[in-house]
Amino acid sequence: MAFLSDTLARVKPSPTIAVTTKAAELKAAGRDVIGLGAGEPDFDTPENIRDAAKRAIDAGKTRYTAVDGIPELKKAICEKFARENGLTYQPNQITVGTGGKQTLYNALMATCNPGDEVIIPAPYWVSYPDMVLLAGGTPVPVVATIDTDFKLTPAQLDAAITPKTKWFIFNSPSNPTGAGYTRAELRALCDVLLKHPHVWIMSDDMYEHLVFDDFEFTSPAQIEPALYDRTLTCNGVSKSYAMTGWRIGYAAGPAHLIKAMGTIQSQSTSNPCSVSQYAALEALTGPQDFLAPNRKTFQRRRDLVVSMLNAAQGITCPKPEGAFYVYPDISGCIGKTSAAGTKIINDEVFATALLEETGVAVVFGAAFGLSPNFRVSYATADEVLREACTRIQTFCATLT
């Protein structure tokens, strides 16, 4: 009898975490490494949020809380949805988890049965398919190529829906591409979903505040009120508030789904960190004035990286609408040989050779469901990005 569960054969470790770990190991060994793998802002958590956490500790708010969030935080989340998204929720429609990942996972665990299909636009966040598999469902990737700016078309969505479809996972702006759906583009997808009342929508809005130029963020339940009763709107404080390590995510949806998700959480982690919840409360209710300058910084970095990568031989890099990622196409590099003699047969080999020969760590596109590409996280200093892109340009120029 095998000791390890058969479930492990269905999933793989996170490639983004693996790249970050590898880069850290090389740095520890004395290598000059620039890590562009982690999806984590380089800003410090704002001072008012840190102070709120300290006050919570000093006030003794370090004990168990309600399983899926303190009442004050749920109330603040309701107010956030009303204020920023025009969506009305009651506290019993809100769940708070240990990071955005847990809320998504809880929803899948609470709803997926063997044979249930979950439509996932590709390129996708690496965890979506594996979480579906862990929950017993079947991921159905639908590839959106560079020709549509990595955005799913209504025809593609319609064709992917079957009687077995349980969920459609929607992420805008996207990890890994940064692509954001316009109001009109989302409206067209909602029109398709209206035709299929058995399909639920899981909207991952984690990068809501990280949008550039004149792009207007919208969410499915906001665009089409008729989808409200079968939409789980997910968000968190990790990216916009530079709180990745605090591990607080949240979601809003029908009360019966939220209750079921709470049952899953009650038998897994129980409540999210009490101190982190009070920090998140301050994040949502306190000053928001740092969001605009942070966004401006990310936009400047986006423009820098897009410009420099498009100047690299064999690379095409679209300009995304949001998040802090770019997803360049490396079709022009495939089949060539690096200066160290590595034949670039796919994007994983490209990323490995890039790291070994230049010290720049990126995540290969196959991990996100679309090749030949790689993902760059530009959530780091301008000078670091400039040096990294210069190394990438040099690497590509020496391919023969």
UniProtKB/TrEMBL annotation:
What does the record give as cofactor?
pyridoxal 5'-phosphate
Q: Which reaction does it catalyse?
A: L-aspartate + 2-oxoglutarate = oxaloacetate + L-glutamate
Give this protein's Gene Ontology molecular function annotations. L-aspartate:2-oxoglutarate aminotransferase activity; pyridoxal phosphate binding
- Report the transmembrane regions from the record: none
Question: Start and end of every Aminotransferase class I/classII large domain?
Answer: 32-392
For this protein, the record's Pfam families field holds: Aminotran_1_2 (PF00155)
Transferase as UniProt keyword:
yes
Which BP terms does GO give this entry? Answer: amino acid metabolic process
Keyword Transferase annotated: yes
Enzyme Commission number(s) from the entry: 2.6.1.-
Q: Which UniProt keywords apply?
A: Aminotransferase, Pyridoxal phosphate, Transferase
Q: How does it assemble?
A: Homodimer.
UniProt similarity note: Belongs to the class-I pyridoxal-phosphate-dependent aminotransferase family.
This chain belongs to which protein, by name?
A: Aminotransferase
- The species this protein belongs to is Cypionkella aquatica
